[in-house]
Amino acid sequence: MKISVLSDIHTDLNDKENDKIIDSLRLISEETDTGVFLIAGDVSNNYESTVNFMNELTKNSHSSFYFVPGNHDMWNIENKIDDSWKIYNEYKKYDWCISGKKINLNSDWCLVGDIGWYDYSFSEKNFFYSEFNSGKNFDRQWKDKLYVNWNKTDSEMTDYFFNNFEELVKGENKNIIFMTHMLTNNFFTVHDNEMWKFFNAFLGSEKYSKLINKYNNIKFSVMGHVHYRKIFSQNSCVYICNCLNYRNEWENPENSSYNEIKNAIYTFEI
Ligand SMILES: [Fe+2]
């Protein structure tokens, strides 16, 4: 079975009138005869747009598309839904959203996933908790602090997802593909400037790779969020961060979405 991976497709910002991400994805999934297509979050900045996109994408589609929300999919700028749990629980109603679920792919493999969250463990430690808690530093604001409201601390949210993940993977004998939006490994953190020593705080948690190392049947950890296209192996797991990103970050910003996506998708066989 062929599995394809792509994240951070940001359809609301990347779509052009004559070049829609949805058309390119549907066509490529068919041309490449992909069995399962994984989208690791950040489809759009608004819940209704993401739901509409995923409903349309999965209608009579060639591949089985599965999704976990990203932080952007949780934002309440447009919909003004104050309680993020309402948005999260809406996503969970759809079969294409695997949050908190286990999907059996075949007799040997299953798929588990959810957003995941961040607990500042990927940052340098010499910042104040109040700076992390506000998401403000270097004259920049981490926007989840304004537009996502779980009514829990980030550390509590990281643990919430961690505990759900462990419930899903413990006792499972099949090989597992583990999909999150947030980073499960600090290999993918950003080291190209001072600012990221702080903002790496909001990319993921080191707890998740500890979970992966504990359960060695987790063979793939698929994620997005950091706008990289990188793959690496550690112990028995292959970590894949494979993002489409904004057009100005594309390998060729003049590319059609078809060409850029075809070039960007990462595919493996199970
Ligand atoms: Fe993200």
- Specify the CATH class: Alpha Beta
Percent of residues in helices:
25-40%
Total tally of structural domains: 1
Could you tell me the mean pLDDT? Answer: 97
Count up the helices. 10
The CATH topology: Purple Acid Phosphatase, chain A, domain 2
Hetero groups in this structure are: fe (ii) ion
CATH superfamily: Metallo-dependent phosphatases
Strand content: 15-25%
Please give the alpha-carbon distance between the first and last residues: 5 Å
Question: Biggest sheet: strands, sense, closure?
Answer: 6 strands, mixed
Strand order of the largest sheet: 4-5-8-9-11-10
User: What structural class results from the helix and strand content?
Assistant: alpha/beta
Order of helices and strands: EHHEHEHEEHEEHHEHHEEEHE
Q: How many beta-strand runs? A: 12
CATH-scheme architecture: 4-Layer Sandwich
- CA radius of gyration: 18 Å
Low-confidence stretches: none
Shape: globular
Structure characterization notes:
The protein has 270 residues and is an alpha/beta fold. It has a single domain (2-269), classed as 4-Layer Sandwich (Purple Acid Phosphatase, chain A, domain 2). Helices cover 31% and strands 20% of the residues. It contains ten helices and twelve strands. The protein has helices spanning 11-14, 21-31, 47-58, 84-92, 129-134, 144-147, 154-169, 195-199, 206-214, 257-264; strands spanning 2-6, 36-39, 64-67, 101-104, 109-114, 136-137, 140-141, 175-180, 218-223, 229-234, 237-242, 266-269. The strands form three sheets. Strands 4-5-8-9-11-10 form a six-stranded mixed sheet, covered by helices on one side. A hairpin with a 2-residue loop joins strand 10 (229-234) and strand 11. Helix 2 (21-31) packs across helix 10 (257-264). The longest helix is centred in the middle third of the chain and has 16 residues, at 154-169. The mean pLDDT is 97. The chain binds fe (ii) ion. Fe (ii) ion is lined by residues 42, 70-72, 181, 225.
